[in-house]
Amino acid sequence: MTNQKNTGERQQKIIVFLLFIVLILASIIIGTFNKINLLEKPPVTKAPDIEPIEAVAPVSTGKIAIIIDDFGYRNDAVSEGFLNMDADLTYSVIPGHEYSQTMSKKAFQLGYEVIVHIPMGTTAPKYGEDEYIIKASMTSAEIESRMDKVLQHLPEAVGMNNHQGSKASASKRVMNVMGTVLKENGKYFLDSRTTKETQAELVMRTLGVPTGRRH
To answer: pLDDT tens digits for 206-215?
Structure first.
C-alpha cells in the first residue's frame, strides 16, 4: 500500500511539473507571436492637420497703350495703312505741317484717339517746328500762348506727348506752365522721357493732370 501511495504521489508531481512546463512554453510562444505581430504592423501615425487654403486673388493685368508718333508729316498709303489697322491705337499728330489737321480729323472720324505731339526745345542743334515749339527760354506768357495755339490747331486732341524736348522737359517752370494749361482744358500728358532729367511726369502729377510715361 505504501509503495502504491508513493507511486501515485510521484505521478501527480510529474503531471504538475509537466503542466508547469507546458504553461511556460505556452507563455513563451504567445509572447513571441505578439512580438512578431508588432513588428509586422506599421506604427499608426496621426494624420497631420490640413490648414484651409486661402483663396488667392487673381493678379491684375496691366494695359499697353500703343501710340503712333509723328502723324501729320504725310498723307499717303503708309498713313492710310495705319488708319486702316484693326487695333486700338492712339495717333500723336505733330502740329504745323501740311497734313497735320487732315490726319487729325481722319483719325478722329475713324474713332481713334488723337493727341498732340508737341515739339519741345532740345539740347540738339535742330528744334523742329518753330511755329509751335515750346522752348525753355520762353516766358511763361509765351508758353501759354503756344499751348493755346496748338490746342486750337488740333481740337480733336484729348492729350499731349512731347516731341524731343530734352531741354524743355527738364524745366519745372516750363512743365508747370504747360500742365496748368492742360488741366484747364481737361487734357492729359504722356512723358516721352527723351531725357533722364525730365520733370514732366512729376510736375503733372503734382498739378493733378492725368499723366503717364513711355516705357
So the answer is: 999 999 988 7
